Amino acid sequence: MTGQKYWITPKGDLIDISSINIEDHYKYINDTEEGKKLMRLFNVFYPYGGINKDNLYFLLIKGFIMAEKINTTLYVTYGVRTSADNVPVSKKTANTLLEYLLKDTIKEVYFKCCVLDKGITKTLPKMEYAQIFTNLES
């Protein structure tokens, strides 16, 4: 089952890749002109063969967030500074994520926080997850 897929850029822009008929996060980054421009704009290291699940951290450490909404669950993957931290690296992406999270249709969040190529996954009810952002400065 697939849902609405998004990228959030380090500047906080929400890109709805499903609305342009792209159903794969990696295809957008690797194969579209817009995705390639983002890689250059944010100076992302581009490995031979492109970005994939094994080297996604090249994007995440720059502040990108990969998101997908399926039914009432929001699935997000993003980089954090330490394994004890659940807030995204970029405050702008964190603010955009929080704004999107507060939509009425989202009930829970499955999130994966990554420090380089290591990840920690959790699932929380929406409001409990939103509490992570309470100390975030604008």
Describe this structure in words.
- There is one protein chain.
- The chain has 138 residues and is of the alpha+beta class.
- The protein has one domain (4-133).
- The chain is 26% helix and 27% strand.
- It has helices at residues 25-31, 33-41, 57-60, 91-101, 126-130, and strands at residues 4-8, 14-16, 65-70, 73-79, 108-115, 118-125.
- α1 (25-31) packs across α2 (33-41).
- The protein is globular, with a radius of gyration of 14 Å.
- The chain starts with a strand and ends in an 8-residue tail after the last helix.
- The mean pLDDT is 90.
Percentage of residues in helical conformation: 25-40%
- Strand portion: 25-35%
Largest sheet, in brief, is: 6 strands, mixed
Continuous helix count: 5
| End-to-end C-alpha gap | 35 Å
| Total domains | 1
Shape: globular
List low-confidence stretches: none
Q: Strand order, biggest sheet?
A: 2-1-3-4-5-6
Radius of gyration: 14 Å
What is the arithmetic mean of pLDDT? 90
Q: Total strand count, please?
A: 6
- Based on secondary structure, the structural category is alpha+beta
**Helix-strand topology string:** EEHHHEEHEEH
Helix-strand blueprint:
Blueprint: E1 4-8, E2 14-16, H1 25-31, H2 33-41, H3 57-60, E3 65-70, E4 73-79, H4 91-101, E5 108-115, E6 118-125, H5 126-130
Parallel strand pairs: 4-5
Antiparallel strand pairs: 1-2, 1-3, 3-4, 5-6
Helix pairs in contact: 1-2
Structural descriptors:
single chain; 138 residues; alpha+beta; 6-stranded mixed beta sheet; 6 strands; 26% helix
